[in-house]
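dumping this here before i forget
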Amino acid sequence: MVEQFQLFRFFEQIIGCLHNLYNYIGDAIQKTTFVGVLNIINFTMSSVSVIVSTYEKPDWLEKVLWGFDCQTFKDFELIVADDGSTIETKNLIESMKKQVSYPLIHVWQEDDGFQKCRILNKAIKVCSTEYIIMTDGDCIPREDFVQVHYLNKMPGHFISGGYYMLPMNISIAITKEDIKNQDCFDINWLKEKGIPNTFKNNKLRSRGFISKLFNLITPTNASWNGHNSSAWKMDILNVNGFDERMQYGGEDRELGERLFNFGIKSKQLRYSAVCIHLDHQRSYRTPEAIAKNMVIRKEVRQNKSVWTYYGIVKR
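structure:
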């Protein structure tokens, strides 16, 4: 692991020399030609479903929904998987339906504690397409988010994307205009707000070949991440979706582990499929739930389990 990390840092130094020049050229090409091609072929593309999970954070959810309104690839539906939020979230979604360019569907269940797996399974059944992207209601997608997932989907694979964590002060400060103009994805804009100069900034700076190289050499596993992953709906149904016994702490990874056991491989797009993660408290995180989840995941690994009896289809 140490040698792998040192090799990763060596590549980082080499890539840094090429980074700025390539991105300057790459951005110009991507915005003028590639998006134009997408507009032409959108008429023949199948649509995509996006599931956004949420609970009692309408101010964060609104920013996320505006992020999806800025997408270069627009042929998708969006399902909000609501784990028991109050009327404020419902009112927001009803208002946003009139303002965004994509179909917006609200799937809600009564508040019964942290039951994200249960509401995600309900949302999966509502999806009308063959391919599903999943993210959270605190993750604003970059304008190419859906495009990257769609163009990289492959039979027998799921996609593992990345996120860039923001502090609370910047999370609050981001406006609709910052999202529309993509300023909140501009590392220079973020530095003006106080973001330090660290290696993780490459998640926002890297495009094209550079991002692909980082995806290749990153030591991070390409696991199923609730904030940014996608898969074929049939593959998710073949493992019976999420295990509804699980609460916060690895519940997303467990789905990915059963997909692996089913023979599905993962595709690393940590530096290509990018969202910014708004800060928030996690009052639903408990040692008891995490310990319970760890036992379930251990059994899945040991038994090479594929199907959960506590998923979409009940016994």
